[in-house]
Amino acid sequence: MKQALTRSASDKMIAGVCGGVARSFGIETSLVRILAVVLSLFFGVVLVVYIALWLVLPLEEGGPTGFDDLKKMFSGGGSTTPPPSDYR
């Protein structure tokens, strides 16, 4: 392994998992992507592993994990004005 296993912020198509794995092992990103797609067609567990890596691995340079992104997405973040109290 050349670097710690993280998701790539610059070399990503979906979540940066393949880019981060390729960088960590020092191989070509397109090879990792092709391998991931082909293996996921034959073995569904590869898709589960990809999702698990997205949830657990932080974005490079101390960025958020997939869990952090999901928390931010579903934490509300909407309007701060209260709903009207008159529902006639």
Which properties best describe this structure?
single chain, 88 residues, mainly alpha, 4 helices, globular
Question: Could you characterize the architecture of this molecule?
Answer:
50% of the residues lie in helices and 0% in strands. The termini are far apart. The model has no long low-confidence stretch (mean pLDDT 83). It is built from 4 helices and no strands. The radius of gyration is 18 Å and the shape is globular. By secondary structure, the protein is mainly α. Helix 1 packs across helix 2. The chain has helices at residues 17-25, 29-42, 45-56, 66-74. It has one domain.
Structure summarized in a few sentences:
The chain is mostly helical and 88 residues long. Helices cover 50% and strands 0% of the residues. The protein has one domain (1-64).
The proportion of residues in beta strands is under 5%
- Mean pLDDT across residues: 83
Helical proportion, percent range: 40-55%
As an assembly, this protein is single chain
Shape: globular
Total domain count: 1
Order of helices and strands: HHHH
Main beta sheet: none
Structural class: mainly alpha
Got a strand count?
0
Continuous helix count = 4
For the termini, the CA-CA separation is 65 Å
Low-confidence stretches: none
- Report the C-alpha radius of gyration, rounded: 18 Å
